[in-house]
Amino acid sequence: MTPTAFSLLSAFLLCVVGLSLHRTHFMSALLCIEGMMLTMFMLLAQLTTTQQSTILATSPIIILSFSACEAGMGLALLVATSRTHATDHLKNLSLLQC
Q: Which N-terminal stretch is annotated as signal sequence (predicted)?
């Protein structure tokens, strides 16, 4: 395993651990998910360049566009929940209430 791939894999696992352990604020959860998506983009870009395959050439761009949509939707949800609940703590949010 190359040092670049090892550092990207460890960054992805660090984001997963951060998402699973530190779920107090909605913003920190969104940042961990964004970090996971960006490391997936970099891993796919590295895989595409090392494999030199034309089939995988559009995969990093698709992942990057999904990441941008996810970030926009997450920030919209953050604004909506902070307006209705006056906080971004995940423990105060209940999915059973409208």
A: 1-18
Q: Does domain 7-83 have CATH number 3.40.190.80?
A: no
For 69, the token pair is 């949509």
Residue 65's closest CA among 88, 39, 38? 38
Instruction: At 58, list the tokens.
Output: 């559009």
pTM: 0.81
What is the structure's pLDDT at 98? 52
**Domain extents in the chain:** 7-83
Q: What is the pLDDT of residues 28-58, one digit of tens each?
A: 888 899 999 999 999 988 888 888 878 888 8
- Cα separations (Å) of 61 from 15, 58, 80? 21, 5, 29
